[in-house]
Design a protein that fits this description.
Strand 2 and strand 3 form a beta hairpin. The protein is mainly alpha-helical and about 130 residues long. Helix 3 crosses helix 5, helix 3 packs across helix 6 and helix 4 packs across helix 5. Helix content is about 55%, strand content about 5%.
Amino acid sequence: RLMRDHPRISQALYWNELVNMSVQREWTVDLGQRSAYERLAHLFCELYVRLFTVELTSGHSFDFPLTQTDLADAMGLTTVHVNRMLRQLREDGLIEFDRKRLDILDLDRLKQVGMFNAKYLHLDREGRHLDAND
């Protein structure tokens, strides 16, 4: 009844579900097609873009309270392998960690390494057609 009586709420819920499915597809590709190095690069790009959108970045830097164990769990990797890949990303001049902050040193290269294209996040038009002022 809510969705029938309030089509804008229905549209917002539908849009949210479509975006969630798009993100899920990207993560499935991530696990099945990308190397650990590429997965981490992709994750850092996604986090950066999402946080940038809500103005929680400073330059190419943002708070990053996750541990290597958290990353390993999220990426389907061992903690040892995450440690190796983080070291490689640092050695390649792509990222740097400093006091629970992640600094992306070369965003364009990191996007290239992670095969990152932000279109699946639909941030360029999210909710615009649901604007209450329309």
